[in-house]
Amino acid sequence: MTAKKEIQSKWSPDKTYRFKLVGTGANHKGTYYLPTQTIVYDPETNDMRKIRLSPTEKSPYVDEQSDSPADFQGVLKFHKGKLTVSGRQEYKLNYLMALDHNSDKKGGGKALYKFKLEVPELTEKEKAEAKKLRLKVQLRLAEASKDELADFLESEYGYQPTTDTEEELFNRAMSYAEQNPEHVLKTFKTEETKMKATIARAFKSQKLKQVNGVVTWKETGVEIGTFKPTADKKLIQLMVEWIDKGSKEANDFVKKLAAE
């Protein structure tokens, strides 16, 4: 059985979500029925998994559903290339996003026609909250020191300044904040951010060295640890996670790194 994933809500009950057929189905004038249970590709597990549409189950994946899920009564269909779903029908929205018909799903999958979720307009409340969030991030960045800005940009984006001025660092941080204010607010001036930046600088100054995931002190050649970076988790992120576990070796590494 596949390990159960936490299904988090990203749907607003006050909105109506619209899906439209794209590609070869863009000009479909009739009715296009979708299956209410099938086998799909899951990009998170890189496996084929069975999904089932049930009004009592938040997760569409059968192996994450209860033993007695309610059957879906009705049909799931596009009419003239469009399908609308209330934000209150979270189970249906999660199911649609899991289908291989979803053109935005990573890894894709085969389907006669693909569909795309149209981004709904923000409510006035959401617009106000978004503006408040941007303002909050702007104030935090405006009050930050040059070193804090440099640490953040280095650790989260690998940014290398060209002029090394506070103005350049602030402007670059602001550009990232415009793209994703939630991420900036969550990661700015955290202990993890500082540690990532410290480790990155140690590699650049050649205090640390790594070959095939084996990290050593450059000067002595003493091994620090072996890590297996992936596309999703880079070397420095893995090292920070190792440090967070608090082993004696990790604590000794942090102390020596601070003393360098």
Question: What does the secondary structure layout of this molecule look like, with pairings?
Answer:
Elements: E1 16-22, E2 31-34, E3 37-42, E4 47-52, E5 76-79, E6 82-86, H1 90-98, E7 114-118, H2 124-142, H3 146-157, H4 166-179, H5 181-187, H6 191-204, E8 208-211, E9 214-217, E10 223-226, H7 235-244, H8 248-259
Antiparallel strand pairs: 1-6, 1-7, 2-5, 3-4, 8-9, 9-10
Helix pairs in contact: 2-4, 2-5, 3-4, 3-6, 4-5, 6-7
Describe this structure in words.
The chain is of the alpha+beta class and 260 residues long. The chain folds into 3 domains: 103 residues, no CATH class; 61 residues, no CATH class; 71 residues. It is built from 8 helices and 10 strands. The strands form 4 sheets. The protein has a 3-stranded antiparallel beta sheet, with helices on one face. It has a 3-stranded antiparallel beta sheet with strand order 8-9-10. Strands 2-5 form a two-stranded antiparallel sheet. Helix 4 packs across helix 5. The N terminus is likely disordered.
